[in-house]
Predict the structure.
Amino acid sequence: MPLSHEHQMSLLKDILTNHQSDCCGSVSECEQVERLVKSLMINMDIDSNVKTILTEIYEYSQGGIGASDLDAHITTHQDNLSQWVDDIDQY
């Protein structure tokens, strides 16, 4: 059973919140973020403002997947993670 876009956004928010609060994560989490964002980007019910944020999150996940030091990558993006979580809460 596929997840609704509301559940996908909630899962995305949970992963980003964990990265933001723990300052660490896994490549598999970044891959999950990538899959969630791809699925949400093709959803016509998603507001265009959210798609802008999703593009930034996708780039973050790509950087995390390829990072030699994932924890440093996450730490570098702390402000972005906080902003993205806040932005997701507004939609």
About this structure: The mean pLDDT is 94. The longest helix spans residues 48-66. DSSP finds five helices and no strands in the chain. The CA atoms of residues 61 and 70 lie 10 Å apart.
